[in-house]
## 1
Amino acid sequence: MFERPKSGERAVLVQVDFRKAVEAAPNFQEFEELARAAGAEAVLSVYVTRDRPDPKFFMGKGKVEELNQSVHSLNVQLVLINHDLSPSQERNLEKELKCRVLSRTGLILDIFASRAHTFEGKLQVELAQLQHVSTRLVRGWTHLESQKGGIGLRGPGETQLETDRRLVRGRIQVIKQRLAQVQLQRQQNRRARIKQAIPTVAIVGYTNAGKSTLFNQLTGADVLIANQLFATLDPTARTITVPGIGSMVLIDTVGFVQKLPHTLVDAFRATLEETALADLLIHVVDAHSAYQEDNILAVDQVLAEIGASEIPQILVLNKADLLDNAAAVMGQVELKVDEEVSTQTSQTSKIWISAAQNLGLTQLKSLVAKYVSQDMFSTELDLAPNEGALRAALYALKAVEKETDLEEGGWKLSIKLTTSQWKKLTREKEKRG
């Protein structure tokens, strides 16, 4: 048992590369930026190469001893490891190093906790932290794991560890109930937008790609902008007017990173649902980043996880003013259409812009208008008598062009609406059973 330092930002950063790993370790440069974003002062970076993780310490015993010497000679209070550790590995390293040890997931959760400002954002982060820490409550309470026996020494019937676990489970349940209420409010707002046929466009992308800068330029909002990871966490929505389509809801979402913790994805599912139900995604990419392709892949993986991979995307290469050929590519649009299926959902567009310099945004607005306005299809639909709610929703969208009564009851409708509007309606129908 040791006393953990109550504060301290001097940190050692550790990267472990496994020769037999199926996939590469997370980007270390990004890990350094995450540490800075959390307020840590990296005084040493340690690189370790192994065949496979050590069950006890994740890294080898010899490397742990070297790390222990560095921790004490450099007066380090924190060791950050660019991997996910098991609870036992984290606990064993803390005992050996006599300082706090934090995994990549723990570091990201700490950053999110410091950046959440809204009531909903704080609830989501707290839920993710509690879900993460619930498996690690044994740390620091090992002296209370067992109750004393004997006459006069019997405890109240519950150890401190059991009490903590029960309190954590209770708090998780309370937060989930509150987030369910938030999700219900979002669904009500979404139904209002569906009835008014207002398209929804979500800005997604890797953290620090310039999403908030683009959002501010397009909406005139004042969302925080900073050259750091996860500068903005709480989602923001604004209604804007785009020539050719009228009113449109634009949503600025939280940035993604490689190996975004599943606890965060689950906790932010109510927020990310807005992305999954959008008509169009503006995928912002840092055109000047050396890890551009990896960042795109990381975002696409999260989009697939939340069920948003089939939504049409515009790939926006931001910060193009920093490229050597900036003048040649600025505002340029590339459009690729599937030859077999020429529907709008099979189109992918790429455009180069500079949100900070307000360059290429006119072309981007025109492209958004083209996607939203042309994503239309016509079809005939037979509705049973018990599907009056769907019929009413179609009329609210002004999508019904012709209606005739069916002999067996119900209606035959000729409708025209966007693919995304139809997907929203069918999802709502499935939720109602």
## 2
Amino acid sequence: MKKYYVWLGMILWLLGPAYAWAGETRDLQDCFKAALKRSEVLLNQQELVIQAEENYQKSWGAILPAVNGSYAYFHRQAPGLTRSGNTAGSSGQQTLKLTGDQPLFRGFRDFAALNGAKALIKAQKLARQWAGTQLFRDVAGAFYTRMAVEKDLSLLDNELELYQKRIKDLEDRVALGRSRISEVLTVQAAQAILKAQREQVVGQLEVAKEVLAFLTGLDQGIPLEDADAMPLDIGSWDLYQAGLAQRPDILAAIKNVEAFKASVEVAKGASLPSVDLIGNIYAQRPDLHQNGIWDVEIAVTLPIFTGGIISANVKTAESQRRQSEIQLSLVQRTALEEVRSLYHNVKSDTAQRTALQEAFDLSEKNYQANVKDYEHNLVTNLDVLQALTAYQDTERALEKIRYLLKVDFNQLEAAAARRLSLMEELEK
């Protein structure tokens, strides 16, 4: 008997996590946290940030002194000896030195490159932040879409139960001779159509689960919890328009313009003279005793003719700068149009939800009144069926607009850069 309890305890211990999982729910923030950890887009963007930071270090390296060690062995035929037979002779010379090169002036292009690299680092970080914003929008859409479909499926099941109850009542009335069999068949036909609709919604639910699981990596069967309140007052348009100045994609485009402006200065700097301070320390050289163990020189290089390469590089950089300005204008206009459209969508969703709530309340009362009137033979079975259909369809439309309102509201908040603090907190 004791052995039986041991085995039972082990089975319960193994099944414990499964039972714990069955009662565990995930809200929108939980799903977003999970998505942040597995998003390949964010991981790729982080690599771009690292590359931009290394390019900045390379720009610094062009300003700092460079030290190189070199060794050369020079072999030649010794003078005064012939080339024929065994009379040939040769001698060798070795040079071992350290060379230091400190750039003194490069037409200011080194500092321009440094500023451009710094701007690109900021641009890539902002691009990563914007990618996180887009991810939040995708997760919010998938989260509420799945919840909406699950709610729709639940309402369909409730409606099928009402139809089944209606069929049962009609069959009892047929048995008493108070209703015709055609009335039962009418309701059964409507129920069959509803079952077909239910199967369609089941398919939609599987797709919705798959999309959310793809984004978050969570199990498809994990239960969801809606912890966010219904947005009732979204505020004025001016609040959302002001948020456009903080949108990461707009700020990233501004930094890109700064970087390309710096590229123009780098290209122009190539036409100016370069000045380098070069020093050598010799450990071994052929004329070590005559010329000493070190020497220093200042080298000035002035480009006189480069075949038009410098001019072409300047024009290319200026064209790229203009492209970045055009892209900034496009990003700003697109952002404004996107936020304005989402704002109107949320306002429309809110108005629809209010109207549908009123319609739902009335349709529910109408259905209940038709059921009572049918008992007193004041209305037909078709009237009751139409009232039931209107009641359930209105409820389904109401629940859909509620979740659509949450989707559009989260899209608006993210598009207007009003969820940046949330993403920064979740990424910690």
## 3
Amino acid sequence: MIVHLIDGTYELFRHFYGIRRFKKTDPPYGAVTGLLRMVAKMIEDDATHIGVATDHVIESFRNDLWPEYKTGAGIEPALLAQFHPLEEALLAMGVAVWPMIDYEADDALASAAHLAAQDERVEKVCIWTPDKDLSQCVVAERVVQIDRRSGVIRDADGVRAKFGVSPAHIPDYLALVGDAADGYPGIPGLGPKTAATLINRHGHIEDFPPGTLNAHHTQHALLFKDLATLRTDAPLFDDVEELRWTGATPAFVSMAEKIGDATLLKRVQVLQNRQQ
């Protein structure tokens, strides 16, 4: 089996701004509908095991570690209002969904990938997101990252080609170069090439020889690495079969009516009949 893990927060943003770009409107459930249609298409294309990670709240334990870490400030109300309805709609559709509170959606994806990859029945784990944080979860050709926009499938060699370091060193890399989207700046004067060179020469930041970075920069680099390191211990499921899509719940009829997508309801009903 192939396990498909979807970054629900990223896809919600993508669909929201995609609709606005082409229609100049913000339908109340437009982004939710877009993501559900995407999942339906994956099932139509024979995906059997699917899980979606979401940020039930934007803040996480990382905000306690670094006050400048990303928050929900600035997210448009029309987008923010679709976060919880998305979770409700996925549940009604019968799709495994993990709404994260203390952890982030990225941690859920990392945890799910870790759990699924340990199962011998799983041939491949596909993480559907372009987020560079998730590159640390890539394992050879078994756990891969897929960018839906570009169609790029990134295995371990692909991660090295893009960033100049192995997947296991992505947290070190991000700690040194920073991640503006997540709100930490990295180490002054260290660009991508220099960071990759240091990592390939010395390994993890903890193994850098004394004097490679000054004491202040080392302290910050280790903190930023902690921020960049995805947690893999979220207890999301006991058996990968819990991710198998077996059909929508009865609640999906009213949910499809609520979001205003009768066509999606018909598609899901066809897929349910195919399951029988």
## 4
Amino acid sequence: MAQPTGIHARRAALKLLDAVLRRGETLEQATPGALRDVRDANDKALARAIAGETLRWLTDLDALIDSATKQRVPDDAKPRTVLRMMLAQALRLETPPHAVIATCLPLLAGGPRRLAHGVFSTLMKREATLPEVPTLPERVRERWGDMADAVAPGLVLPPEVDLHIKHAADTAQWQAKLGGESLASAHVRVPRGTAVEKLEGYADGAWWVQDLAAMLPSALLGAGEERNALDLCAAPGGKTMALAANGWKVTALDLSKRRLDVLKDNLKRTGLKASPVRADALEWEPKHHFDAILLDAPCTATGTCRRHPDVLHRIGTRQIAEMVELQRALVERAAGWLKPGGVLVYAVCSLERQEGEEQAAWIDAELGLEPVAVESGELPGDLEPTSQGWLRTHPGMLADKGGLDGFFIARWRKP
């Protein structure tokens, strides 16, 4: 019997969800294997969309499922995952219920198929709906506190695409050419789903893709004026290119050969100059000290939850503790490589206090560096520094304009 059109995408989506929820993989890690047998580009995109929306609204989808079952279906049971997918398609992707049934029930067999059909049909007859904003998982709410309610409105939709314009003076010109919206100097935002490789200026290296929040750490180092900067953990290169475009002589350090190759390709496309170095930052020793160091440290990346909703369900106290230990080791080494008067910017794309505010307090107390407060005039739009002179962004900020990733950023000078 011929399989229903679209079942390959649903099977791939189920594999993605299984990898994230049972094995703790990232969506990025899981994608090559899960989509290996999917040939059609539209099916690949659909599989990613189903998995992404399921993860984005998982808590609310589970609440609907539980409202329609007498006995709770176990979290790791295949029927629950398939039901989550079915509801995500019907309620978020506007897939007709008959198409959902035709393409998802074949993923189950026997009794589970009847269970899924019955629960889904019951909820459709009730005209079930999702809340206006996603409900975050309880353990996330416990960690983020009041910030969780502020973050949630920024997670309703996947993000649009931010472009970092190579020459800030050309921002208005590229905004007009690309038909996007500019929220800051050197920034243009275009609609999600845009094929960036086909946009004007891509081949010429006039811009690169970089979230608005990710543009801020390098901007806080100011103009380079041919001074020496180290971009620690540099690949895939967005911050390296930003520093080079702003007049810094950049050493770009990263351990991953694959990611450094991407950085080199980006430098070649944009015509910007930097010195890529493949090395472990915990073992490497520089030949000279630096006027500025940008440490965009490895982290749990929970601040990227609007584009990577898997982090809402994978990250826990163990991963956070591991990152905190690594971050402190990197900061200690970076502090030793600064010239007197040199500036360190520490950044993480994390919403965890342990990786952000608590790390900054530790640096203040332990490393003998002088805090350099972030000023309102250095920031775009309605963004404001904290009372401590740090910067905290999250997806709920600028939500009416498409939001931005969650970052913590702070700055110090070596006496």
